[in-house]
Amino acid sequence: MQQTMSHTYSAAAMGQELRQFLRLGTPILIAEALHMSASFVDTVMAGRYSSADLAAVAVGSSLLFPVLILMMGTIMATTPTVAQYFGARKLTLIGPFVQQSLWLAAILSCLAVALLYALDPLFDWLDIKDPIKGIGLRYLHAAALSLPAVAIMQSLRSFSEGLGIAKPMMYFSLLGLLTNIPMNYIFIYGKFGVPEMGGEGCGWATAISIWASVIGMAIYVYIKPAYQQCAMFTQFDWPKLSTQIKILKVGLPIGFSIFIEATMFAIVALLLAPLGADIVAAHQLVLNFASMCFMIPLSIGMAITIRVSHGIGANLQDQVKRSVLVGFGLALGLSSLTCLVMLMLPVTLANIYTDEPLVVEIAASLFIFAALFQFSDAFQIAANGALRGFKDTAKPLLLIFISYWIIGLPLGYVLGMTDLIYPSMRAAGFWIGIIFGLSVAAVLLSLRLWRVLSKPLPQPH
Length: 461
Prior knowledge:
The protein contains 18 helices and no strands. The longest helix is centred in the N-terminal third of the chain and has 39 residues, at 11-49. Helix 3 (51-75) runs parallel beside helix 10. Helices cover 83% and strands 0% of the residues. Residues 1-5 have low confidence and may be disordered.
């Protein structure tokens, strides 16, 4: 028994696991960074055209984003199933399953496009006036056409990463970015015979660049032998309701978990609006930098899902434990670095975004809070990533809902906007609420993971 334990956590075994994590996590991190870069390019190029077009793109994106993440999160359920089959060496089951994932991606994306095209009355209800209303609607309608490509890409990405092949997503994310930049220029400013569209052009550029990425990814998957061994193209299957339901059972909680976290930050921004432009601006720039740092634990969480799923499929409990331990260690180490940067350079970081003295002063104070939540955020992402490897998503969704919406957000409101506990702390109060909510989530999800790890490994069906 002692010999088995020592082998499980030996330096050689842990080093091998670390190398696997870096091989998976590094391309995932680069792919996420490229995605964020594309959004950054849209914002900058629309802003340089006009402030009205920038505002319109921001409004359209705020409606597009929740639908996008809910859809993508649902399809992410493909990853653990593919990875478990791969770990069990049941390769011929992977292709038919991915076909069902692609069918679900097509169905969900069509529903998402129809929903976004039906949101026109919402602009009137929100009292959004022209020109922002007109530009925003045209941007939203154009960008919505990218959703089928996004959904298909997520399915193909889950297929590839489930096999432990993470680099293709990096390649085709780069292709998307390199396509997006000239397409933005052409459609925004009206070049090469294309009419000048302003902010609407960002939507068309987004759609074209994402479709270019997914077509490239599909061709890559079709020609590479690593994917052909999975019986992906040996037969054609129509949608199977039983398989679709299984994917939704795992995937919908993932989608809603991501949706809950994203909307918590969006609601905080709305609640801060009455406190003035300087406070809102400071909050947003700190949140933007924290979002970039968030890509690091997010990539680790995705790698944990894959490695845990491989271990479950192969029925290797020792590997699963090593994967969890290495993943948590990486999350702790890298979150320590981002925390240190925020603590040591708050004014420098704020000055990157603005030269307004008051905004810099407020942001510098908020960076202290952002630094503190790096640890709890990293741990909750790592724990959730491991649980997804077990396809344990329903109870984590409940724990996340309680942590963010029942504890974190109300506490932030009480501290930030009222004098019930302490004199109103304004933006700082909301950040304390966020820290507390993330910390509760980290504890609850870690306890849930501990309980799951104490049981025999599930067998892939």
